[in-house]
Amino acid sequence: MLCSSKGCIVIFLSIIISRVLSESDDDEDITPTYVEDNSMEKGERNPEYFTTGEAVPEASEDQNPGPDTDDGDAKLPSLLDLKMDYRMLKAKCPYFKHGDDLDLNQIADVWQVAYFQLQEDISCFKIHIKKTTDEDKKAYSDRYGSFSDKVNWSACDLEIRASDKSETQRRHFLQRREKGIMENVIILEQIGRNDTTYSLHTESPDQWLVVKHLLLMRDCSDGELVVFSRVPHQPRRKDVMDALVMFGEYTMEGKMACE
User: Class assignment of domain 91-250?
Assistant: First the structure.
């Protein structure tokens, strides 16, 4: 067939288009439908569909039930962070071992010494640990001052009062830190003829832990131990030993008291 080049091209394209249209009319409907897939054996789940016919979307980072590492609040502490925290605790309390943050409601009570591991013997005595209120903290701050910013009264949540009469000329507060470490804030009172002066007695911090009816205290500077029992509880030697283990102590080299 003779034709111009442009006419031949047009005729050729028309033939191709007509063939494509005729083939598409013969195809079945290919609209996707989701049906129950019973080809999986019992106990297996189709990776693409539930048996209800609903498509299962692939898990994304937002759907991952595990911790989201992109969220700073949900990050787990790294081993390096834990080591740094432990070193900071050891710097504040060289004899720090096992410990946890204190529940002020558990420690605020009347206690009697039950066991001690000290260089010198101590007498049987009681202590009253009470919580300080916001009004108390403000009054102490106005009265005693901060001693050149050495005392943070907002963190002095507890006060210790002993049955020993020698304590009448001093006040003893506990300034909270982490993991049961408490700084001793001991204020000495000097009453003169015309005025009263106050001085801050320097003493190393202690680590505290409550275990049931027992209150354990470890001196951060030398590791000496004192265990108090909640009045009127009378602990057995085994009770004390079990509590010491939770405090990181595995030998009982001291003496029972107030027996």
Answer: mainly beta
